[in-house]
Specification:
Elements: H1 2-27, E1 29-30, H2 32-42, H3 44-64, E2 70-79, E3 85-88, E4 92-95, E5 100-113, H4 117-184, H5 190-224, E6 233-234, H6 247-257, H7 259-279, E7 285-295, E8 306-316, H8 324-390, H9 396-431
Parallel strand pairs: 1-6
Antiparallel strand pairs: 2-5, 3-4, 5-7, 7-8
Helix pairs in contact: 2-4, 3-4, 4-5, 4-7, 4-9, 6-8, 7-8, 8-9
């Protein structure tokens, strides 16, 4: 009576503590969306790419400076000899220059017309920013899907370990039964040795699974920026909704969404602008200059500093630059042709990736149905084997074979569930779906 009371009290205590434990577990859990968010918030790769955008912004500001006048000041002292002077009778000496020459001036120069060279260079700088932004999107996409893959890999390994532990416990129970039969003399030690081999084999498989799980947690911790010890539970399952797979529409969607395509097109646009800039390399420029300063050496009082000013209109007309402009044009045109081919290369690559990912998803969906049936049949086989074992129709090893087949069917089913989720996200990735 006392024992029954203690068991009841323990059962009630567990029921009362379970909600509290569940709340604590949920507070430490990590969902797939939270994992992606942490990855994109803490990854130095993204910070590095964002700094490249800032670098391009600085280059755009640098290019804008060509639209403003350049202003500079000059201070100079020059000693010029010999001193030239003439003596006029009755009037004295007259100097035509001074030995000590001082000059202080401020000048400004503004380009008035350059056949569109500055505008083309500005558009080129802006195109580099668009390319840098697409690189950021590409990095985010790769990191997000890496996080998804390792997240579900960890879930798969954890559930596989649970199945393997269940198998080991079942084998251990069979081992105890086999040992008792040997002790009672109703059986030989063959069943014991065979069962021990299977327990050892299952334990080795468990060690491999645990090692893979530890590595997966290390990789996920590196992605999300968690440098401490792993104490987080992953919250998620393998249930996903899969829409109808239409390869033609998926390929068309990928061509419009994939950052690689966008980046290739931006590079092609930059190459076109580079060709335009190169073609304007030997065009004339028209400029105006203004200046004001103080200098001595002006007749008649050579040693007195006087205000001077100037206004100038100048044209710079290149005549021969050693074929430099032609070489730049050839270089830019070759880069443009290469950029155009890069778009075609990416389109072929993406088309193949979409078709391959769609085929993988279809395969895993088909396998999911067959493995469900396999688990169902293996479970029924174990139930029948247990009944037959009790009736003495089959041996302990036959029952172990049935239990092993069930464990393998469960592991296979888990693997197909895992592959189904991974293949679904792999298809999303090659299509260009944004998941962050």
């Amino acid at each position: 009576m006392r024992k029954r009371f203690l068991c009841s009290a323990l059962f009630i205590t567990i029921l009362l503590l379970k909600p509290i434990y569940s709340q604590q577990a949920n507070s430490d859990s990590l969902t797939i969306n939270e994992a992606i968010k942490q990855t994109l918030s803490n990854q130095p790769l993204i910070t590095q790419a964002m700094e490249q955008i800032n670098e391009v912004d600085a280059k755009i500001k640098e290019q804008k400076s060509s639209y403003y006048p350049s202003v500079e000041s000059n201070l100079s002292y020059t000693y010029v000899g010999p001193l030239i002077s003439l003596t006029f009778p009755g009037l004295g000496n007259f100097d035509f220059n001074t030995l000590n020459n001082y000059n202080m001036n401020v000048s400004a120069k503004q380009v008035l017309y350059d056949f569109g060279s500055r505008d083309a260079a500005m558009e080129l700088a802006k195109s580099y920013k668009l390319s840098a932004e697409e690189k950021v999107n590409l990095i985010k996409s790769n990191l997000a899907y890496q996080t998804i893959q390792i997240f579900y890999t960890i879930l798969f390994l954890e559930k596989s370990i649970d199945v393997k532990n269940e198998q080991i416990n079942t084998l251990s129970a069979h081992l105890e039964i086999a040992k008792k039969k040997v002790e009672s003399g109703s059986s030989t030690d063959f069943d014991v040795l065979t069962t021990e081999v299977r327990v050892a084999s299952a334990q080795n498989e468990l060690i491999d699974l645990q090692n893979a799980l530890d590595k997966g947690k290390i990789y996920l911790r590196s992605l999300i920026g968690n440098e401490g010890e792993w104490s987080t539970n992953l919250s998620g399952d393998f249930s996903i909704s899969i829409p109808d797979i239409n390869e033609a529409s998926l390929i068309s969607k990928a061509f419009s969404l994939r950052p690689e395509i966008k980046l290739a097109k931006e590079n092609e646009g930059s190459a076109k602008l580079s060709t335009q800039v190169a073609g304007l390399g030997n065009k004339p420029t028209l400029s105006v200059g203004l200046g004001y300063g103080l200098e001595n050496g002006l007749f008649p009082d050579l040693d007195v500093l006087r205000g001077t000013w100037f206004a100038a209109l100048s044209a710079n007309i290149p005549i021969f630059d050693g074929y430099k402009t032609d070489a730049k044009k050839e270089e830019a045109e070759a880069d443009l042709k290469s950029s155009t081919q890069e778009i075609l290369i990416q389109e072929r690559k993406i088309k193949a990736e979409v078709q391959s990912a769609a085929a993988d998803l279809k395969t895993s969906m088909d396998k999911l149905k067959t493995t469900e049936v396999q688990v169902k049949h293996a479970t029924e086989a174990v139930s029948r084997a247990v009944a037959q074992y009790r009736d003495g129709v089959i041996t302990n090893l036959d029952l172990i074979d049935a239990d092993t087949a069930l464990a393998e069917a469960k592991l296979l089913y888990l693997q197909v569930l895992y592959k189904n989720v991974v293949n679904k996200y792999a298809l999303d990735q090659v299509v260009g779906e944004v998941v962050w």
